[in-house]
Amino acid sequence: METTEGIITFKLFPEYAQKTVKNFVTHAKNGYYDGVIFHRVIEDFMIQGGDPTGTGTGGESIFGKTFEDEFSKNLFNFRGALSMANAGPNTNGSQFFIVQNRNFNENFIGEMERAGYPKEVIDYYAANGGTPWLDFRHTVFGHVIDGLEVVDRIASLPTGAQDRPLEEVKIKKMTVFE
């Protein structure tokens, strides 16, 4: 993903989120995301894009309608996760977000233990950050493997109303390597 702030490279997980990856890759190959802005950025949380209207209310899937969530006990909203934005269960379209949160609130440890999170997942969150409260609410379908500093730079930009960057940050183009 080439943005006006730099390049972000992802590894996608079609083995766990086949339909979501197909949607994202097809949109990327068709140029659907080219020129689209990151319409919502919140430092120590996430950056969100994928809406061609730039309003946060637009965009559609390649399937012509919203599609179901694809949750996996192998994927979590760790720092760098690429996840689907939605308006509730099974409402995926074209919008996505990248988890930027560097911090982990240790108050979550007890909740995560009670929910059955494996110790290594809790430890990874504690060491690397992320948004565990979004797990099993938003489909994780990829992870940043290079360019996390670009995500941090975008997240740190000054914002105005509705967490919209004061200066537009655009996806210039996406390239898919298979």
Describe this structure in words.
The chain is an alpha+beta fold and 178 residues long. 21% of the residues lie in helices and 19% in strands. It is built from four helices and nine strands; from the N terminus they run E-E-E-H-E-E-E-E-H-H-E-H-E. It has helices at 18-29, 108-114, 119-128, 148-155; strands spanning 2-3, 6-7, 9-12, 40-42, 46-49, 81-84, 96-99, 140-146, 171-173. The strands form two sheets. The protein has a six-stranded antiparallel sheet with strand order 3-8-6-7-5-4. PPIases accelerate the folding of proteins. It catalyzes the cis-trans isomerization of proline imidic peptide bonds in oligopeptides. It is an enzyme of class 5 (isomerase).
Give the topology, please.
Blueprint: E1 2-3, E2 6-7, E3 9-12, H1 18-29, E4 40-42, E5 46-49, E6 81-84, E7 96-99, H2 108-114, H3 119-128, E8 140-146, H4 148-155, E9 171-173
Antiparallel strand pairs: 1-2, 1-9, 3-8, 4-5, 5-7, 6-7, 6-8
Helix content: 10-25%
Using DSSP, what is the number of strands? Answer: 9
Number of helices: 4
Distance between termini?
14 Å
Structural class: alpha+beta
| Alpha carbon gyration radius | 15 Å
Strand adjacency order, main sheet: 3-8-6-7-5-4
Main β sheet profile: 6 strands, antiparallel
Structure summarized in a few sentences:
GO terms for molecular function: peptidyl-prolyl cis-trans isomerase activity. The protein is α+β, with helices and mostly antiparallel strands and 178 residues long.
